[in-house]
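User: Here's a chain of 128 residues. Predict its fold as tokens.
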Amino acid sequence: MLFCFLVLLVFQFLGEALTRLFALPIPGSVMGMMLLFFTLIKFPRLLTKLESAAMMMLQHLSLLFIPAGVGIMVSLTQVGDHWLAIVVAMVVSTLLTMIVTALSFAYFKRWNASTHGVEQEAEGENDA
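Assistant: Prediction complete.
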């Protein structure tokens, strides 16, 4: 298990180092994840070794949200001072996400139908 965590940390370190060394515009952790992905493709046996550690980390993923919750509690007075802006930002961003998701789904559904020759039903046909 310790070996698995070491491998994950080494790839995160490599990603951070490469990002800083070449001044890349992507986060080092993302670069490390890409390096790990290509390594796992090249060496599938490593995947079987890392799988158990990854599953354990996923089971305890909720623990990673504790620092964010503590940060909110520490700055609770600032959150209270700006509660209206925070609520508006949350509502607007949620609505925008839902709209973009629905429009994307509709676009790709039409694109899939035209690409694969699937016929779409007219909206009013099932009313009878």
